[in-house]
Recover the amino acids of this structure.
């Protein structure tokens, strides 16, 4: 524990330098994070100063019903500083997926760390919590996930539900939900909970949330579903580079079509970008390398509640609840064909009509979200 105490007293900057990162890497990262935290570029200096002076926040990282894809994704962030920034000795020692140790010693060390940092640590939770049959479907060291979660949450300053499983219930909660899986906020009611959904989520988003807390001492502004607005305030559709094709009524109808090769919109192949709130289109994955749509596959809405029951994934859904744009998309496509052989003016008008209808027909969730964002 002596080692832990020593590491804990370092600032973010000192810790990164110790790991061999350069000042240049650090400055690049601070600039990148400032932008993605939704802050003005004039705030870069404040972010740098905070990282140089603020002590690292202890993190306890629990894993329950999940595939561990969230951690895998987090570790594989192509950005050199992302994992090093969050994974201090504490989380490495007590992450079921990452820790080198095992058994009673690890359990004891975790309890000691929670005691030492009571009221100060951030609890990161991956995975859902089974509640059926007294929670027997997920036990660690002889205790149920529900029991462990309640204990870990008691001393947490805030909780980050990392991934769609801990945020919404995830794939194991799919109908008929045989183990009675629930998200964290069904069980924990008395702590601030920041939902960072996605299956898996974007690594840089969680880093941004933790950095916001470290710099400002507050959790970021959340939408009405508990997600940080700066990362989940827009639909994937709003920042999609294929959006001009959607607006022009140009859709790929099969994966091996010429239209798909042309990079046309994937809406008719089941894309849920129009009803999915996530930063994939703007941040992309692996340091801006790609994201599902850029790889030629439609968004399956992996950051949305109940996406797992909203299949089949690669067929255009005529019944996305409250979406109402599928008729519009059809209409745009039909009129676009007419426009191509007739008048470009008709095409432009049709596109505008489609846009207006799309806006009018947004889902209840979308409306609530946008109202919240405007508020
Ligand atoms: Fe769930 Fe994460 Fe999907 Fe997997 O931990 S959000 S199943 S990527 O691993 O919880
Ligand atoms: Fe992009 Fe999908 Fe929207 Fe098409 S429907 S523009 S592929 S997000
Ligand atoms: Fe998920 Fe869709 Fe992004 S499937 S990773 S929310 S593009």
């Amino acid at each position: 524990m002596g080692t832990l105490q020593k590491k804990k007293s370092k600032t973010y900057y000192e810790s990164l330098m110790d790991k061999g990162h350069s000042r240049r890497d650090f400055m690049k990262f601070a600039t990148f994070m400032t932008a993605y935290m939704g802050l003005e570029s004039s705030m870069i200096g404040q972010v740098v100063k905070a990282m140089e002076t603020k002590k690292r926040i202890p993190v306890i990282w629990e894993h329950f019903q999940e595939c561990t894809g969230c951690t895998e994704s987090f570790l594989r962030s192509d950005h050199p500083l992302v994992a090093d920034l969050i994974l201090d000795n504490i989380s490495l020692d007590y992450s079921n997926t990452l820790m080198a140790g095992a058994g009673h010693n690890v359990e004891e060390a975790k309890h000691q760390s929670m005691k030492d940092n009571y009221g100060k640590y951030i609890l990161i939770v991956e995975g859902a919590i089974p509640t059926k049959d007294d929670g027997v479907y997920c036990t660690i060291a002889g205790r149920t996930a529900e029991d462990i979660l309640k204990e870990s949450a008691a001393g947490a300053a805030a909780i980050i539900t990392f991934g769609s499983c801990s945020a919404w219930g995830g794939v194991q909660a799919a109908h008929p939900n045989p183990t009675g899986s629930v998200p964290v906020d069904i069980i924990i009611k008395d702590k601030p909970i920041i939902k960072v959904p996605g299956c898996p989520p974007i690594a840089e988003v969680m880093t941004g949330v933790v950095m916001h807390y470290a710099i400002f001492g507050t959790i970021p502004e959340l939408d009405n579903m508990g997600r940080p607005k700066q990362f989940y305030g827009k639909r994937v559709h709003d920042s999609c580079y294929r959006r001009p094709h959607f607006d022009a009524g140009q859709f790929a109808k099969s994966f091996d079509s010429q239209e798909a090769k042309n990079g046309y919109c994937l809406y008719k192949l089941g894309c849920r970008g129009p009803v999915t709130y996530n930063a994939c289109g703007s941040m992309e994955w692996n340091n801006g390398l790609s994201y599902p749509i850029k790889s030629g596959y439609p968004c399956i809405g992996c950051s949305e509640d109940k996406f797992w029951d909203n299949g089949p994934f690669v067929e255009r859904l005529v019944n996305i609840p409250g979406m109402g744009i599928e008729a519009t998309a059809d209409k745009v496509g039909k009129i676009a064909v007419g426009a191509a052989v007739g008048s470009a003016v008709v095409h432009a008008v049709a596109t505008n009509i489609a846009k207006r209808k799309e806006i009018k027909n947004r889902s209840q969730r979308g409306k609530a979200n946008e109202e919240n964002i405007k508020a």
In short: The beta strands are 59-63, 121-126, 129-130, 139-140, 143-144, 156-162, 181-182, 193-196. Residues 30 and 48 are 6 Å apart (CA to CA). The chain has two domains: 12-232, 234-375. The pocket of FE3-S4 cluster (ligand 3) is lined by residues 198, 236, 276, 278, 280, 291-293, 299-303 (CB under 6 Å).
